[in-house]
Specification:
- There is one protein chain.
- By secondary structure, the protein is an alpha+beta fold.
- About 40% of the residues lie in helices and about 25% in strands.
- It has a 3-stranded antiparallel β-sheet, with no helix packed on it. A two-stranded antiparallel sheet has the order 1-5.
- β3 and β4 form a beta hairpin.
- α2 (about 55-65) packs across α3 (about 70-90).
- The longest helix is centred in the C-terminal third of the chain and has 18 residues, at about 70-90.
- The radius of gyration is 13 Å and the shape is globular.
Length: about 100
């Protein structure tokens, strides 16, 4: 059995977000941990919150509306890596 490639963002009330210049602090209330992240993590989180559950392809589609992401295959692979890292931090859940 393979792991799902679809993810769901933690509810907004579970994560307090504060932007400090180029760094975003994400306080994850359930774990009590604060994560320092940079782009594109906040943008990926916002895309998942806007569209509900998604995978790297759907997040790419949402972000490509506002950002020049370069070659789709490379961008989707990078987004997939970020989603996996975000799942390990507890910011998103695999479905």
């Amino acid at each position: 059995m393979t792991a799902s490639n679809r993810y769901l963002a933690e509810p907004e009330e579970a994560v307090v977000e504060r932007v400090l210049d180029d760094i975003t602090l994400l306080y994850h209330r359930p774990s009590g941990q604060t994560h320092m992240v940079v782009s594109p993590v906040p943008e990926i989180l916002a895309a998942l919150r806007a569209d509900g559950a998604g995978d790297a392809e759907s997040v790419h589609g949402r972000l490509a509306i506002s950002f020049d992401l370069g070659a789709p295959d490379a961008a989707q692979a990078a987004i997939a890596r970020h989603l996996e890292e975000m799942a390990q931090l507890g910011l998103v859940r695999r479905l």
